[in-house]
Amino acid sequence: MSGPLRIGALAEAAGVSTRTVRYYEQRGLLTPAGHSVGGERRYDEVSLARLRRIRELADILGSDLDEIGAVLAAEDRLATLRARRQAGDPAPARVARLAEAEAINAGLQARVRDRIARLQSMLDELEARSLYYAQMRAELSASSLAAPSPRQV
Amino acid sequence: MSGPLRIGALAEAAGVSTRTVRYYEQRGLLTPAGHSVGGERRYDEVSLARLRRIRELADILGSDLDEIGAVLAAEDRLATLRARRQAGDPAPARVARLAEAEAINAGLQARVRDRIARLQSMLDELEARSLYYAQMRAELSASSLAAPSPRQV
DNA sequence: GACGACTTTGACGTTCGCGTCAACGTCGCC
DNA sequence: GGCGACGTTGACGCGAACGTCAAAGTCGTC
Hints:
Strand order of the largest sheet of chain A: 1-2
Order of helices and strands of chain A: HHEEHHH
Distance between the termini of chain A: 78 Å
Number of helices of chain A: 5
Number of strands of chain A: 2
Radius of gyration of chain A: 26 Å
Structural class of chain A: mainly alpha
Oligomer: homodimer
Largest sheet of chain A: 2 strands, antiparallel
Strand content of chain A: under 5%
Largest interface: A-B, 34 and 34 residues
Helix content of chain A: over 70%
């Protein structure tokens, strides 16, 4: 639908500033789809999707642009591998691409799992205390049944 | 065992620089246990545990000292609630403390669960693709059985 | 072709989380 | 009480991830 975007429109669509867009370009995360004759940056739907993905990753992983860049690079590589797929493709090539894709996917999974594991260990401790609190609560209500209220004795 | 620590010993025991220790103090995360007559910072085992906890949280949550501070504050509050517990304690007071502790614990759990959820959603996608790859691999090996190798035909 | 809205590059400012001097004082052991 | 190791405050430096302002050019419309 919507054609080429100027930087302001792109930025607004993604909820970031134009400065941020330019900074991402400087850091190699987002390249304009093209340029106008006068030299203005032009973007498209793909740019927008990528920019949104960057923000999503920032939300998930934290705003470490280097790490986001690494993840994006991995995802890009997966995309090109997918794009290379064609019907009359020699089997060995397909096997090789599949192997690479699986390796990249495994790498990404490892990154994410590692982070989850750290958080999970913290959550485990919190849940353990939670159980302890539940037990305390049970004991307290039991004792209050034994001696419901000072007045009632 | 070991008595009061000077800043250098504390920092080394925790694997950080003395600058970092002073910065944490400035940010309100770590207060010295006391001071020498001459004005040097003195720390103890509790300080060391806290400093290590700060680094642990940084590892788990990322190095946002404000958030780490918030978590520490919550944990501190839990600690003082625990410390207030005594034998001949009126039941209502115990109930109140328990309720507050459970609320704080729930808040911390919410924070952590939220982060885990984000990461988990990303992991889910990766695992989905992983399954897809496995299927591709199965199909490929099936077709290679049908026509094992070009040479064998 | 003029006008207003938008962009460009460049540069300086800001907040974090420290690293790194500098100039001075403290500790504790001989 | 002297000496070397260590600590104190203060200040500037640094890379990250942008915000902000200036001077100039571009875009599309009237």
